[in-house]
Amino acid sequence: MESQEGRYTNIAPMFNRTNYVFWKLRMKTYIQSLGADVWETMEEEYQKHQAMITKYRKIKFTCNSKAMNVVLTSLPESELVKVTDCTIAKEIWDKMSNCYEGDNNVKQGKLQGFRMKFEPLKIHDYEDIVK
How many other C-beta atoms are found inside a 10 Å radius of the C-beta of residue 87? Predict the structure, then answer.
C-alpha cells in the first residue's frame, strides 16, 4: 500500500473497523478544518428546531449537517447500521466512540485488567498464594 504521508487530501478518511483510533484522529482534524462551528456540533448537543427563525439557528443546522455528512460518508454500510437512529452529529460521534472505545466504565475496567496483569505481585500476595 502506498504511503499517504505528506499528501494533501480534501476527502474524509474512511473507516475500516480496524483503524478506529487513527480514523478518529484524522476525522476530528478533518471536521475541524471545515470550521470551528462544524466541530462544535460534535462536542455539544445540537437541538433541532422545526422553525429556524434566527440566522444563528440556520448556521447551527448547516454545521450539524456538514459534520453528519462527513462522518456518515466515511463509514461502510456495516457501520452505518449502528448509527441509523442518530439524528445529530454528536450522537453519531458518541456512538462510534462507545462502540470502539467503550464508555468510561468500560475504559476503567480495561485499565484495571491491565494493571492486574502487568503490576508485580506484592509480598502479601505471595503469602496468599502459598496458603
Answer: 12
Summarised one tens digit per residue, pLDDT across range 1-35 is 445 554 455 778 888 888 788 888 888 888 888 88
Write out the DSSP string of 6-65: T----SPPPP-SS-HHHHHHHHHHHHHHT-HHHHHHHHSPPPP-SS--SHHHHHHHHHHH
Distance CA 40, CA 102 (A): 22
User: Which 3 state secondary structure label does DSSP give 48?
Assistant: coil
The neighbour count for residue 57, using CB atoms within 10 Å, is 15
Number of H helices, E strands in the chain: 7, 0
Residue for grid cell 453519531: 92
What is residue 22's predicted lDDT score, i.e. its pLDDT?
A: 84
C-alpha cell at 56: 444563528
- C-alpha grid cell, residue 130: 502459598
- Tell me which of 64 and 112 has the higher pLDDT: 64
Q: Which three cell numbers stand for residue 1?
A: 500500500
